[in-house]
Amino acid sequence: MSVRVLVADDQELVRTGLAMILDAQPGIDVVATAADGLEAVRLAERLRPDVCLLDVRMPVLDGIAATRRLAGPGVAQPTAVVVITTFDLDEYVYGALRAGARGFLFKDAGPALLSQAVHAAARGDALIAPSVTTRLLNAFARHDPALPRRQPLEPLTDREEQVLRELAAGRTNTEIAADLFISLSTVKTHVGSLMTKLGVRNRVEAAIWAYETGRAGPSTKG
């Protein structure tokens, strides 16, 4: 079954180009496009796409505010959001991920990475542009040093700590399974348990938590 996608960007050429690229990918169906954040929210609430691809800088309602409306804390039925931008600015990524986005990419990411991000978001996973992942997650740990560090609802097991470090390094479930010599289903079980214990909604939030609490470190691949 195809992943239904809404694309929002205030530049018509970019919006049309992104829609054409995604529509050409296997298993993806662009069901709507929007020229501003408010239109995107209204269309998403009416059409219920699987994933919304939102530009950061849009008129009326920007991409971060739109993400918060669609996927933020307290949203009863959150929509998976991937945020895209031309600008490599940390504050955009902070805002997008805090607002509930499951992915963050640059507009020049290319068809393959765009497709991966959309499919990952639809699965409940997350994909952040590889060039910014580690830098941004490390920056999260320094961004609000005065904030109290949340503790897990239950202590993490040694294996869960290992999986968390791998996850924070941006590794996929398949890569984690290979690194730790465990099955893919076991990795999924550990990731699910981590999210429950940490009280987070997705892998991005789990990775942020790992950096904020000083748990993140080198993965087993170094």
UniProtKB/TrEMBL annotation:
PANTHER family: TRANSCRIPTIONAL REGULATORY PROTEIN NARL-RELATED (PTHR43214:SF24), TWO-COMPONENT RESPONSE REGULATOR (PTHR43214). This is Response regulator. The modification 4-aspartylphosphate is found at D55. The keyword Transcription applies. Residues 4-122 form the Response regulatory domain. Keywords: DNA-binding, Phosphoprotein, Transcription, Transcription regulation. It comes from Catellatospora aurea. SMART domains: HTH_LUXR, REC. PROSITE patterns: HTH_LUXR_1, HTH_LUXR_2, RESPONSE_REGULATORY. Residues 149-214 form the HTH luxR-type domain.
